[in-house]
Write a structure and sequence with these properties.
The protein is an all-alpha fold. It contains 15 helices and no strands.
């Protein structure tokens, strides 16, 4: 009854704000920690260390890829099952998903720890950058079984209607992480592995605190005796495939991009690209928080066949995502020097001018990113995983890889143009997908009207 009142009876805009605002703030807190991570490393350890994080980070994200697949893939069917009043099924999916995530963390962590030196050697970066990157990756690999469930638990808190609890927990953990990193790097003078250790310790604390209420049966979702089935596993994989393919293909693209950057501009080009990524990672999680936090509400109403509320919730996430993106574009376009100075102590005029030029080009991509991502999230929430997968693979792999090779003759300029061209192409694809889906929705609404008569 609690879920019915929350998801079906609350007005659409109020429901959106109740779900999306804490989710966005929660993700913003994590994003700001990521920003401070880049600032601390760049200012305290220097440009080579900052570049090494950018080399390492694609592999860190790959470590979380399968866990994120399960997290997103389970959240959608859990929400839909609750919308259908099938609580037993929802709790079974919840329990199975947590066990699958822990297993994935063990496997991926082991592979990453052993394979990191070989993966970094492929990039042909300087010996020092490779050494630092391996240190950074291996800390995450050791903690992998204990921290990869954090994203899933954040999702499950939202499904349980505990968005404020998740928000305050994320804020607290992000502040603690920043303080730990400052102590490790500035006070204790640890190497780059100290930055990774600060992150992992904080993530571990988040997982423990978030998991406890579920384990004690305090929330709607609770642990039960798991009953694995091929049907449940397929459902999880189907719904989580878009985010998984986006993570994997996006990181493969980042690795290829880093290799191209090294060949054309060395560690300094990688550092410029890293500045873009850190600034982008402030915007992207906020939009992700808005969309992802609203997914349970959309999924619940989809399961309850309230198509009118589904459409109105979709309008909310598109509107909010557009506003965030415009703000981000404005900051990057008009204040590039200030933003760049946060990450580097360099006084090299050539480096700084190239960084400003690259950041302004990158800013244009934010005018398109919001539309593609909001469409992808919406399609995931209503179980249109094929459409969501098209967008995720297009944005993370097909379009960027195509432009890397197609614009190779333009040198670094071609690499800087990659993001806006990729997001523009994805926005066009999203328009087509939404048009097709709108036709399907109109047919469903007509059928429901006939059935009501």
């Amino acid at each position: 009854m609690e879920h019915k009142e929350y998801f079906l009876k609350t007005s659409v805009w109020r429901l959106f704000f109740i779900a999306a605002i804490p989710g966005a703030i929660s993700m913003l807190a994590s994003a700001l920690y990521g920003l401070f991570d880049g600032i601390f490393v760049g200012q305290i350890l220097g440009d080579t260390a900052f570049a090494s994080i950018n080399l390492a980070f694609p592999f860190v994200i790959i470590n979380f890829a399968i866990s994120d697949l399960i997290a997103v893939g389970s959240a959608v069917p859990i929400s839909i099952a609750l919308g259908k009043q099938e609580e037993k099924e929802a709790n079974n999916i919840f329990t199975c998903a947590l066990l699958m995530i822990m297993g994935a963390g063990v496997v991926m962590g082991t592979l990453l720890y052993v394979g990191s030196p070989y993966l970094l050697a492929f990039l042909d970066a300087s010996d020092e950058a490779q050494r630092l990157a391996v240190q950074y990756i291996r800390v995450y690999a050791i903690f992998s079984p204990f921290i990869t469930g954090g994203f899933a638990l954040d999702n499950y808190l939202r499904i349980s209607g505990k968005t404020k609890f998740g928000m305050w927990l994320s804020i607290t953990v992000s502040i603690a992480t920043a303080l730990l990193e400052f102590v490790f790097l500035f006070v204790l003078k640890l190497d780059i592995w100290g930055a990774a250790l600060a992150s992992c310790l904080s993530m571990f604390a988040f997982v423990l605190i978030a998991f406890l209420p579920f384990a004690l049966g305090k929330f709607t979702l609770h642990l039960t005796k798991p009953k694995f089935s091929i049907k449940t596993t397929k459902q999880i994989i189907k719904c989580g495939l878009p985010i998984f393919l986006s993570n994997i293909s996006g990181r493969v693209t980042s690795v290829v991009m880093n290799k191209a950057l090294i060949s054309m501009g060395g560690d300094s080009a990688v550092a410029i690209f890293g500045i873009q990524m850190y600034l982008g990672e402030v915007l992207n999680p906020v939009i992700y928080g808005i969309c992802d936090s609203t997914q349970p509400a959309i999924g619940y109403n989809w399961g309850a066949k309230r198509l009118d509320r589904v459409k109105n919730l979709a309008k909310c996430i598109f509107s909010a995502s557009a506003i965030v993106s415009i703000v981000a574009f404005t900051a990057m376009w008009f204040f590039p020097n200030i933003l760049i100075s946060l990450f580097t102590t360099s006084t090299d005029v050539g480096f700084l001018n190239e960084a400003v030029r690259a950041l302004k080009i990158f800013a244009v991509s934010k005018l398109f990113f919001w539309f593609a991502f909001a469409t992808q999230s919406y399609m995931t929430a209503v179980e249109k995983s094929f459409f969501a997968t098209l967008i995720s693979v297009g944005s993370a792999f097909i379009f960027p890889m195509t432009f890397i090779f197609a614009l190779n003759s333009l040198g670094l300029t071609g690499l800087w143009l990659n993001a806006p061209l990729t997001m523009g192409a994805c926005a066009i694809m999203s328009v087509v997908i939404l048009f097709i889906f709108a036709k399907e929705m109109r047919k469903k609404e007509k059928i429901e009207q006939i059935n009501l008569k």
